[in-house]
Amino acid sequence: MIDGLESSPLLAEIILGARQWLGGAIALAAVAIGVLVWSYQRTLGAAWLRFVCLILKAVAVILLATCLLDPLFRGSRPSPGSNLFLVVADNSRSLQLANAGQRESRGAQLQASLSKDSPWLTRLAQDFDVRKYTFDTQLQPTQDFSQLAFVGEASALSTTLSQLSDRYRGQPVAGILLLTDGNATDLDGNELSVKDLPPIYPVPLASASLSLDASLTSIAVSQTNFEAAPVTIAAEIATQSLAGKQLIARVLDESGKEVERQTLTVKKDAESLSHRFLIKPEKPGISFYRVQLALPGEEELAVDSQQSTEATLANNNRLATVDRGGGPYRVLYVSGLPNWEFKFLRRAVSKDDEVDLVGLVRVAKKEPKFNFLSRSDERTNPLFRGFGNKSDEQAEQYDEPVLLRLGTADKEELRGGFPKDPEDLFKFHAIILDDMEAAFFTQDQLSLLQQFVSQRGGGLLMMGGKGSFGEGGYARTPVAELLPVYLDRGAPQANTEPLHLKLTREGWLQPWIRVRANEQDEQERLTAMPGFRSLNRIESIKPGASVLAEVETGQGNARPALAVQPFGRGRVGALLIGDLWRWDLRRAEDQPSDLEKAWRQTVRWLVADVPQLVEVETRRIMGTGLPAREIIVRARDPKFLALDNAQVAISIKTPDERDLKIVAESSEQTAGEYRAQFVPRIAGAYRATITVTAPDGSEVGRRETGWSVEPETDEFRELAGNLPLLQRLAAESGGEVVSLSGLSSFVASLPNRKIPHVETWTYPLWHQWGVLAVALGCLVGEWGLRRWKGLA
């Protein structure tokens, strides 16, 4: 707390310098007044005349008797030069605007009030030690406010007040005069605390009335697994004085190509609009899209153009950062037998550049060795006869299943069948189990599947069939704990009548479940789907699970067809239909495949939000006044445990095509976490490539991230200023809001306010000529009345 702010001001008062004469003065005055009353009672004349004369002479007697007590005026005033008063002026670009109905800008009005010969500044300097500051992105001391240029890219109001509090802690500051429009750009939803500050006296420079303007107040980017439009950009738009007019909203890619255009109609004044753009990035990784607002015919105007009818174009553009990175995602498909499902799944995923499908398909189960059916002295499975000159130790044995590996990274991957170690299994992002019984896996592998979801955070989908769910022997296994359904009854049900698929309420809300763009088309698609014949019968789902799709029998009974639930860090799905491939049988050759699209979206859902070995997060650092960024890197080893002692190098590509290198330091709070700070110097889009190297020198992984710096957009977000914020600052700090025209009267009233350091002054009452003038006037008046009326 800054010292002295709790002292109360001393108001002017009268004290007695010779209090010892109080009794004598009262007695003398009483005797004199008594004599006067007795004398005027014996005097002949009108009663009112005698009364007036008595009063006049009594007042003179009382004043003279009071002078015997040596009365003194005593008061307080600021001790000259002992108290500080801070004058802080906004130097940001938003002050270049003019208020509605005024030709002079806010900055010009401010400069006129802060000129060297301003009477209020001169009066303020007589009582206080005035310290002058300007602020935009940073707080700067100044000797002369004529240096204000109003070119600052931000209004770091929170940072400014925090720096003033730290700089003048423990010093006698009488108050802070804050001249600004209140558009703080460094709050970011955080409350601004002023409990450690002296009284703040804001001077709002922006009027409540606004000129014609449209602004993008905020944009938000969300990504889904809906293939037609995987990225949604939600734009919040504020309008002023645009009722009945139209706005053009556009999305442009990095080359300036128009991706989407919409025409919006403003129905009423000061209307807030919301609009969503659905886009599909053409390339993976980091992309930047520019969202732009414009009145018809003004789409190509520059930001600083003076030809626009809007108050400013600086708030009409925003950059949206889209991250379609994280891939390629690797999905392991494990099947108990060659089937149609793998054919359609593989064909669908081949069209997604971000997904690699690896197949482990069993073509023959374990079988005992029968010598009488084989050649003499042959100890290996005859199914592999003729495939190279393998030794008996390398060839598949009779008592092992015959597995077909497809799409592996190299010839060694999955050579031993399903992975037995976390390092091998955790390389994948998702696993699909199709008609593969639990007996195929060892107990350790079943536990490893559970760790894959809970610890690694991967996705798992079990498909229907006689080797799945309950009939596959998964009850009372670690995998049963993962599934969103209970396996008390799991036998696949063969149906003589077709089963028709329909979406539940939860299913309609999931974009990755829907294949068509609108509800009507989706309903038509569901109606045209063929009936299915195989379904694993499940009676109940687990708490927390959701049924997204059901099948309906001819009797109208509905049974779960697709259920999902989160588990640990990952997610699990149960597709209870055993013949999903029937979906694509009725498709004409020239029609797009809904099944393929559904498979791509399902796989995208499985791998969405799956943790990577290297993960990156960027945050804006608040409280600095600059668009500083903190880059947070989380590194894991192949077992997905926190990786310490790694080296994290960051390469940043700036908007002007420069390459900057920084190094992230290990965090002291969290294992496997590394942090670095970066302060951008120019506006635009930034890309960063993060490379993590293990202690042994091997590369753990690389990730790309990006962000945008747009100080102008934040600075011009609200043209009317933020008067509620300024009012709150004044109320919570004990100050008050002051108008620009009322600065002189405000400065004149400061001596009567709370001041840290004050001095006391006294002045004798009898030194005032007015006291003697009143006494003599009363006596002369009484004598004149008596002479005029002939009072004896």
From TrEMBL:
<protein>
    <recommendedName>
        <fullName>Glutamine amidotransferase domain-containing protein</fullName>
    </recommendedName>
</protein>
<keyword id="KW-0472">Membrane</keyword>
<feature type="transmembrane region" description="Helical">
    <location>
        <begin position="47"/>
        <end position="73"/>
    </location>
</feature>
<dbReference type="InterPro" id="IPR029062">
    <property type="entry name" value="Class_I_gatase-like"/>
</dbReference>
<feature type="transmembrane region" description="Helical">
    <location>
        <begin position="20"/>
        <end position="40"/>
    </location>
</feature>
<keyword id="KW-1133">Transmembrane helix</keyword>
<keyword id="KW-0812">Transmembrane</keyword>
